[in-house]
Structures are given as structure tokens and as C-alpha cells.
Amino acid sequence: MITGLGYVLTAGRVFSDRFEKEISRLVLVAAVPALSFNSFMQPLDIRALRQGMTLIAWGFVLYAVLLVISPLAYWRVSSADQRRILGIITTFGSTTVFGIPIVGAVYGARGVIYASLFNIAYRILLYTYVYIRMSKQQVTLRQMMKILVNPIVVATLLGLSCWLFQPLAPHVIVGQHLVAFYRIDQTAPWLYQPLQYLASLAAPLSWLLVGCALGSRLSPTEILTDRLAWYYGALKSFMVPAVCLGSVEACQLVGIGQVSLTGIAAIALLMCSPTSTIPVVYSVNYHQYPLMTAKCSIVSNITSIMALPVWLF
Description:
313 residues, two-stranded antiparallel sheet, 75% helix
């Protein structure tokens, strides 16, 4: 609905091109950093961490492998740049908005912890490697320093450090619980809540941006009849989770990287998520085939809804 609103208001010339650019900056500088940091404001469960260490490793392995092999699935696309962008949006799904809530609804708090741990690789690669590739910046020392001070990267690394080092930090009593002093979700709700408001803007504003990109250039017929977008949707929602699930299960049989059923289910559900909004925002902001990524994003929402019952089963 929000994407449709962006489409209608842009097609009706209520929104200008400048609006699209400014909103994309707001998402990248404020909303996404808040979302990234707040996601780590949760207890560190030592037992879950032991299982989670395996999931962290699986996250890096699966995302790295997908980044290599996903562009190969688009061998019929003539442009190498397009194949690279398609590979990126095939690899990264909207796990925070789509995947983790579903995992939590089905598997409870333990499922959320496992999904969050698996998602560490996602966050690090999405806000570093994908940023470099989509912005087409040269990998120099100066550029690396610029990336490290990027608000999204800073928020991700700070949140990860806070989550990992909770046992070593000074603790305070909040109600009947002992928590690290920097767990602002418990100790400073006056600070946590505004960040949560900002975080909640990330998804709707990104969906609005998708609609703006489409409304300025495309009709619904062009979106729904795009064969590449539907091919992408089938790969994103069905093939990617199948490859990840098959890889994990195969390793289970030979005793490598043992993961619990809840962890395996979390991987499958996260990987069937529709297109992540962050690469789409990057593509709009850095002019990396925004129409293609916008169409693929919309179609993947449809195919992910179709695929979800399959993966839940």
C-alpha cells in the first residue's frame, strides 16, 4: 500500500525528484542506523551464543557464497553491472522487517536470537561490501575510513559490540532484572524510544521510495509483465532458500556445523524474505539501475508471500 501511495503521488506530480533524493538521505543517515543499533538491544544468552556461534559462521559462509554464485544465475543479462546488482539483491532479503518477525511468531524468543546471530554477517556485509559495490567507490585507505564513519556502519559495529560485551560491562538493576548499563531499552527508555521511532521509519520510507522510483517512470503493466523481475522473484523466494537449506542439511549429515532445528528454520525463513530495502535505496541514491531494483523488489514481495507457506511447512 505504501509503495502504491508513492507511485500515485509521484505519477500525479505531488512529489518531485528532489523529494525522492532527500527521503533516501533521511533513510540512510537516520532511520537505518537507528534500526541497526536498536536490533542489538537484547539480552546475551550464553547457551544461545554457543549455538549462535555456528549460525554466525554459517551466515558469513552462505552470504559470501551467494554473492559469488547469484550473478551467474543471470547469465542471459548482457550487462556485467546489471548481473552484479541482481546478484546483490538476490543475496540480501528484508530480514529485519519480514524474516525475523515471522521467525519470532513461529519459534519464539530463541528463534529471534538465532535469527539475529545469523543476521550479523548480513548487517556487516550489507553496510560495507554492498555499499562499496553499489556506490562504485574505489577501495582506498581514505575510502575505507569514509566507510567506517558511515552512520550505518558505525551503528552496526557499536550495536554488535554492546551486545557481545554485556557480561563485562557494569550492571544496574532495572525492576527485577540485572542489565548492562548501556542497555538503553531498559535503562534509558527516553533515548531508546526516539531511536525506535526513527527505526520504524526505515521500512515504510523505503517502500515509499520504491513507489516514487516507479511512479516517475513506469506503469503497473510494465512492472507485472517484466520477465526479468519474475525470474528474479522465483530465484529469491524459492531457489535461494533451497540452496541454503540444502547446504546446511548436507553438512549436518557429515557432522559439520551442527545447527538445531530452530536454527535451520530461521535460516530458511530469513533467506526467503523479499528484497532488502537497503540495496534498493542504494540503487536509487547512486543511480544503479533503480527501475530494475524497484520492479524486482515489488515482485519479490508477491513471490515471498507465495513461498512462505512452503518454507514454514
